[in-house]
Design a protein that fits this description.
The protein is of the alpha/beta class. The protein has a domain at 4-190 and 231-260: 3-Layer(aba) Sandwich (Rossmann fold), CATH 3.40.50. 42% of the residues lie in helices and 14% in strands. Strands 3-2-1-4-5-7 form a six-stranded parallel sheet. A three-stranded parallel sheet has the order 6-8-12. The chain has a three-stranded mixed sheet with strand order 9-11-13. Helix 2 (29-42) packs across helix 8, helix 5 (103-124) runs parallel beside helix 6 and helix 7 (203-214) packs parallel to helix 9 (265-273). The chain is globular, with a radius of gyration of 19 Å. 48% of the residues are buried. Mean pLDDT is 93; it is low at 11-16.
Length: 335
C-alpha cells in the first residue's frame, strides 16, 4: 500500500511558497484531519484553520486559527485578502440527519456558504477551491449497486438536494468564470480522531466507541442496511490527490464518485466481535433508516481511477484493526 508519508514526499516538490490555504469548517470531522494533513504538506503557517466553533484541541498550537462565519461574505472576503489566500477548502455544512430537523437552515447554510466562496474565488482569482459533495445526492431511483458516475439523481433529503444543486454551481463557475473548483462525493466517513457530525452513517463511528466502553451498541439502522463507507485516511488522501491532479486530467466538474468499502451494521458487528468477543448489537431503526434506504449500497468510482488514479487502501478488516489500535491508545480509554 502507498503510505501517506510517500504521498507527502511526492507532493513536496510541487509546493510553492505562494500557496496559502484557508480551511473553512476546520474543527469538523473532516476538517481536523484534513487541516493536519495539509499543514504537513504546505507548512503549518500556510494553512489557516477557521470555524465558528472553538478550535479543535488536535489543531491547537499547530498553525494559525481564525474565528470565521462563512455566511458573512464581507468577513470572509476580508480574511481571504488579509491572509493572502490562494486556495479554499469549504467543509462547513449541515449533514443529512441534522438537516432533516431544520431543512430551511440546512439549505441556507449549505448553499449560501458555497456561493460566497465561489464569488470570492472568482473576484480574487484564487488558484483552486475544494467543496465536498456526498452520496446523499443519490435517491431511491438511482441504481442500488455500483451506482455509476452518470445516472438518475433524485435526492430526497435537503442535504442531498443542496449538494446536488451545489455540484452544478461548481460546474457553472468553472465553465462560466474559470474557477478551478473540485469536488468528491464522499461516502460515510469513519475516524478515530474526530466525532461524526450528524450524518446517517454515524453509526459506523459510534459503534467502535460503544464497543470499547460498554461492549454493546444499539444501531439506528437495520442489520442488513448496506451503505458505502470509507476510512478517513483514504478520504483525506483522495481529497489531496484530487487537488494535486493536473487540471487538464479532470473530466468531471460537478463532483467525482468516490468509493472505499460497503458493509452493513451486522457485518461490522461481526468484525468487531473478532476483537471484542463479548460485544453485542441491538437494532432499533429510527427516521434515519428511510434516508439510508434511499441511497445506493455501493458506488462505482472508476472515473476517479481513470482521471486521477484513485484507489482505496482500506477494507473493513484492516480499518477495524486500525480503529481499535488507535482508540485503545487514546487517553479516554485508558484504565
Amino acid at each position: 500500500m502507498i503510505s501517506f508519508e510517500f504521498l507527502l514526499l511526492n507532493f513536496h516538490f510541487n509546493i510553492m511558497a505562494k500557496d496559502r490555504i484557508l480551511v473553512i469548517g476546520a474543527s469538523g470531522q473532516i476538517g481536523v484531519e484534513l487541516t493536519i494533513a495539509l499543514r504537513s504538506i504546505y507548512g503549518n503557517n500556510n494553512v489557516i484553520a477557521s470555524d465558528l466553533r472553538e478550535e479543535n484541541e488536535l489543531l491547537r498550537g499547530t498553525g494559525p486559527y481564525v474565528s470565521l462565519d462563512v455566511m458573512n461574505k464581507e468577513m470572509l472576503h476580508v480574511q481571504v485578502i488579509r491572509q493572502n489566500v490562494t486556495q479554499i477548502y469549504l467543509l462547513a455544512a449541515i449533514l443529512s440527519a441534522t438537516g432533516e430537523k431544520n431543512p430551511n437552515l440546512a439549505w441556507s447554510l449549505n448553499m449560501q456558504s458555497l456561493l460566497n466562496v465561489l464569488d470570492i474565488a472568482r473576484e480574487e482569482k484564487l488558484d483552486k477551491v475544494y467543496w465536498p459533495s456526498s452520496i446523499a445526492v443519490f435517491g431511491p431511483t438511482s441504481p442500488k449497486k455500483n451506482c455509476p458516475q452518470q445516472t438518475i439523481i433524485e435526492p430526497t433529503t435537503v442535504y442531498g438536494i443542496s449538494k446536488y444543486a451545489g455540484e452544478f454551481w461548481c460546474n457553472y463557475f468553472y465553465h462560466r468564470y474559470g474557477v478551478d473548483v473540485r469536488s468528491l462525493r464522499y461516502p460515510g466517513l469513519i475516524s478515530y480522531k474526530s466525532a461524526p457530525g450528524g450524518g446517517t452513517t454515524d453509526y459506523a463511528v459510534e459503534i467502535f466507541h460503544e464497543a470499547l466502553e460498554h461492549q454493546q451498541y444499539t444501531s439506528f439502522l437495520k442489520k442488513d442496511t448496506y451503505l458505502p463507507m470509507m476510512y478517513m485516511p483514504d478520504a483525506i488522501r483522495a481529497t489531496i490527490e484530487l487537488m494535486q491532479a493536473p487540471a487538464d486530467k479532470l473530466s468531471i466538474r460537478t463532483s467525482y464518485n468516490l468509493a472505499g468499502m460497503s458493509f452493513s451494521p451486522e457485518e461490522i458487528a461481526t468484525e468487531i466481535k473478532a476483537h471484542i468477543p463479548s460485544f453485542k448489537i441491538n437494532y432499533k431503526p429510527d427516521y434515519r433508516q428511510a434516508i439510508a434506504d434511499s441511497w445506493p449500497q455501493s458506488i462505482d468510482d472508476s472515473q476517479s481511477g481513470k482521471d486521477w488514479g484513485w484507489k482505496p487502501e482500506y477494507d473493513l478488516p484492516v480499518m477495524t484493526k486500525d480503529m481499535f489500535y488507535h482508540l485503545k491508545h487514546d487517553k479516554q480509554f485508558e484504565k
